[in-house]
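User: Sequence in, structure out. Go.
Assistant: Echoing your sequence, followed by the structure tokens.
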Amino acid sequence: MPDSPHPTVPAPRVPPPRAIRIGIDLGGTKIEAVALDPAGHIVARERVPTPRSYPETVQALTDLVGALERPLGVQATVGIGIPGVVVPETGLVKNANSTWLIGQPLQRDLETALARAVRMENDANCFALSEASDGAAAGARVVFGVIMGTGCGGGIVVNGQLLTGRNLIAGEWGHNPLPWPQLDEIPGPPCYCGKRGCIETWISGPAVAADHTRATGETLTAPEIMAAASRGEPGAVATRARLVHRAARSLATVINVLDPDVIVLGGGLSNTEGLATDLERAVAPWVFSDRVTTQVVVNRHGDASGVRGAAWLWG
């Protein structure tokens, strides 16, 4: 039988080059990178520990892009979520809890290293954008995305668009003082920002671990404490209760100002069993309303939410 004049062409393993988007989440302890196809499916993934110096961080980010692109045979767009913001007037990073990034021209240096434009946004904004687009808050009009991990950040999405603010700090709830502080919460632990008693110094992962040590003398990580609490160990149960109380007070101030439809929890502490339900219940007495219908939910995309949002910075 003669060959068909129109032979079947095998489907390509990956979409055309311009369709691939790389998203990178530059976290305090790890850097995760993914490549997305046009439908939002992850076609490649890499993860490395976060270096503790600026030059090593630039090199790690550059290497991650190459590690994703080489097997796919493409040059992709690159979006990066960082624990801070890039000031448009100077191109320098500010407000980063990974303090070695502060004052550095990260976006410019990466664009030079990669020989292409790079889009960069606050990591909490990337998380919020991802969850508001096709995650746990899809379809909601006003979404507040919360990061409770190495640091404590937040992002706001209104009608599908990021709200970054005049000073690029919209959603930075972690650097307000802990609301309605108890006597033993004054003046609060020192914060890297130069103040004391910021929300981040109470409800981030390292802050919960430090709180537990102060109360019990035990040195455990936040995930270990939450696991111990689920087993009913009294010291850990008390630490978890303090976390819920402090986070509820803090989220109440967000609801009082922003009144979002949905609050989405992200970061390592969001994996705590039952935390979203407990916070939705505990926040109500602190809100300036006799009826609170704000939903508090766990993210849908897990650890991939930040990188997905970073990738979609290129639309």
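User: And one key feature?
Assistant: Residues 1-17 have pLDDT under 50 and may be disordered.
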